[in-house]
Amino acid sequence: MSVLWFLGRRLLAAVPTIVLLSLVTFLIIKAPPGDYADTLRTQLINQGGASVADADAMARAFRAEHGLDDPVLLQYVHWIEGIVTRGDFGFSYAANRPVADIVAERLGPTLLLALTSHLLATALGIGLGVLAAMRAGRWVDSALNLFAFIGMTTPRFLLALIALYVLVFQFDVASVGSFQSARYVGAPWSWGRFADLVGHVWPAILIAAWGGIAYSMRVMRGNLLDVLNAQYVETARAKGLSPARVIWRHAVPNALHPLVAYQGVALPYMVTGEIEVAIVFGLATVGPAIVGAMAVGDVFVAATFMLVLAITLILGNILADLGLALLDPRIRLEGRKA
């Protein structure tokens, strides 16, 4: 019952945070001068389909039709009102389709990449961190620390470029830049389609997870080394418990606290981090959609995706708090007394 109360309290507190984040995000997106009408005007002039005067008139008419001349706060209110009352996230001027369709199309592949990368980074990072701590000062520890240093300092776009070059020019891999082969697009799910999906996305997943593996390993190694010197661990050893039981039953759970708290920002980090990888590999995910929308002033696409990322961040923190509460009952009880 206390867990449900804890979760309900955090969900209730998240509502005003989401509203504030959506407002700030919308204002930031609208802050730069220009809008999609300016992009439309430039396209008309460059294509030679209209004179400068006609293009200016069309841009003014477009702004009047779509309310782009309204005050920014009024535009925000109309956007939020559509979301709350009708589930309408606005209209994409560039794609000429509802924003909800674009979100539904790109959010699934993005979460697939982000969640898989996150789970891989967490599992491998914890395992390598335990291994490094148990071999502290030896060559295994030095090699893993070097791996973590490279993983945390190398830009992911550089790794993606290197991987793209190697796959295409060294191994003649043609399945780069999409999630499925042409024969599986629209086909029902099967083991063949799943294997084809894995064959397409594994480079992007590994690159997106690289930094997370390095970070989790470093944190786990440092925390576990501290915990192994704690008095209760020495007591467990003195009782004659096996080294494996001491580590996995007593030391590792207490070393996990910072990593559990990190999960609150890890998933949004993976979602936004796939932007670089997705752009290099040409994958149809959230990242390229945000960049493209910002470039042409397609405000509702950019604002909606940023709102989704904000909600992901808040939900991630709530799940991290819930994980900490389950791992350490004192957190749950302190929250209830507050």
N- to C-terminal distance: 16 Å
Q: How many helical elements? A: 14
Q: Mind describing the biggest β-sheet?
A: 2 strands, antiparallel
User: What proportion of the residues is helical, as a percent range?
Assistant: over 70%
Task: Based on Cα principal axes, name the global outline.
Answer: globular
**CATH class of the domain at 101-297, anyone?**
Mainly Alpha
Given helix and strand content, the structural type is mainly alpha
Mean pLDDT: 83
* β-strand number: 2
Order of the strands making up the biggest sheet:
1-2
The CATH superfamily of the domain at 101-297 appears as MetI-like
Note poorly predicted spans.
333-338
The name of the CATH topology of the domain at 101-297 is MetI-like fold
Cα-atom radius of gyration:
25 Å
Describe the structure.
- It is globular, with a radius of gyration of 25 Å.
- The longest helix has 38 residues, at 191-228.
- The model is unreliable at 333-338 (pLDDT under 50).
- The protein has a domain at 101-297: MetI-like (MetI-like fold, Orthogonal Bundle).
- The protein has 14 helices and 2 strands.
- The chain has 338 residues and is mainly α.
- A two-stranded antiparallel ribbon has the order 1-2.
- It has helices at 2-30, 36-46, 52-66, 72-86, 99-134, 139-153, 156-170, 191-228, 231-238, 243-255, 257-281, 286-296, 299-327, 329-337; strands spanning 91-92, 97-98.
- Helix 8 crosses helix 10 (243-255).
- A hairpin with a 4-residue loop joins strand 1 and strand 2 (97-98).
